[in-house]
Amino acid sequence: MAKPANWSQHVAGRRMVSAVRLAAILCCAAMVASGLGPAALFAQKKEIVWSEREKPLIAQLRGLRGLPDDVRASTTKQLALQIRELPKTPNKMRLANGLANLSTEGDFGRDTLQEVATTLADALREQPQPDERGAPAPPYVVLAQLVRYEHMQTSLDVPQFAAAMAKLEADDQQRQKADFTLTDLQGKSWTLQDLRGKVVLVNFWATWCPPCRKEMPDLEALYKNFQDRGLVILAISDEEASKVTPFLAERNITYPVLLDGGKIHQLFQVEGIPKSFVYDRDGKLVAQSVDMRTRKQFLEMLALAGLH
Fold first, then answer.
1. How many H-runs (helices) and E-runs (strands) does the chain carry?
2. Which end is more exposed in the chain, N or C (fewer Cβ atoms within 10 Å of the end residue's Cβ)?
3. Other C-beta atoms lying within 10 Å of the C-beta of residue 198
4. What are the tens digits of pLDDT across the range 182-213?
């Protein structure tokens, strides 16, 4: 997941995507901006000191996006197991949460993702995190997303995790009722609630987001394949047209791209990108992604809306 933060010195490019977002970038899938998330691994006011045992793990974590998907899957799984064996320190929590944020950028296998979820849950069990401004700390929300949206299992049973699950349910209820009207780059107006009878995929993205760029060819292929069968893709960016238009032209993207000043991102509780929501022909929210999706994963989401 891509998140604006001061990670740009480490990767080109998991957090707030609004008009006031920070200029630098890390993980686009992409969750509540975390003081312990991937972006924060290298954006602390106080310099983080890594132990000799931790240094190779953070090096591998930084390099995950540069790996082929099959290698990335095995590396992610091995990292989860190695982090789990670390002694109880704040760095262990940083690594566990950072890996969890990066592990949803595609499809690296359920076994891999379960190991990541188990490692994060174990870290939270060892080091309970205090609430932040009356809300559950970000690592609880990250774990809740893995459970609710990726269907992972956890035995963690603490009030903070229950509160995080409740927050996600409330967010989904708001997204179900959401409506907006935005204009695309060609000047056409689109209103979500007026698209009943269509299958609608709402995708939040940005030009600076590596996982967003990676999933765009699959979205374009799906749009061309299913457009005549009722699929509408509405891709929403909070950037300026002067930046978005040439970017799309270089990639021959034909699905509608809408510009948002940030209000619709807030309406959908989008705190990391890319993020996608699928509504069926009755306007029911039937699927959503935590992060970047592969074509196979998008097809699975569309199937839940009756589009095969």
1. 10, 7
2. C
3. 17
4. 999 999 999 999 999 999 999 999 999 999 99
- What pTM does this model have? 0.85
The DSSP H or E segment spanning 78 is: helix 69-84
Backbone angles phi, psi at 81, to 5 degrees: -70, -40
Nearest to 160 by CA among 132, 131, 133: 131
Q: Which two tokens stand for residue 270?
A: 């989008």
CB contact set of 3 (below 8 Å; sequence gap of 6+): 14, 15, 16, 25, 26, 27, 28, 30, 33, 37, 38, 39, 101, 272
44 pLDDT band, cuts 50/70/90, is low
Q: Pull the structure tokens for residue 153.
A: 């299992």
Q: Which residues are CB-neighbours of 65 under 8 A, at least 6 positions away?
A: 11, 72, 102, 105, 210
